[in-house]
Amino acid sequence: xxxxxxxxxxxxxxxxxxxxxxxxxxxxxxxxxxxxxxxxxxxxxxxxxxxxxxxxxxxxxxxxxxxxxxxxxxxxxxxxxxxxxxxxxxxxxxxxxxxxxxxxxxxxxxxxxxxxxxxxxxxxxxxxxx
Length: 130
Fold this sequence. Notes:
Blueprint (H helix, E strand, L loop, with lengths): L1 E2 L7 H16 L2 H5 L2 E9 L6 E3 L1 H9 L4 H4 L4 E10 L3 E10 L2 E12 L2 E13 L3
Parallel strand pairs: 1-4, 2-7
Antiparallel strand pairs: 2-3, 4-5, 5-6, 6-7
């Protein structure tokens, strides 16, 4: 996982983001369930493709897709910005390229008894530029 220059990131948030990227690249819902809050709000904000899902619907989609790792997709991801407000909430801006698309994610985090969890995933994508 690439971090933007001079980005300060809490070790627990860094570990969460590593699991996030691994889970997406492997299409592994078990890993992703350790990342997402059970009340996840998933929002695809891509123009012309708005979608809203809960955790179970999203995990079904993950389970039914061919993993980018199996397809041999190159793995490129970065965390561009992290904002934490004490130990209660935070925001992560991240990017990932897979499945022929460049993704831009805004992830809202909350701190729970089980550590940091993504409570909202709002993202958009565009066809990958070569």
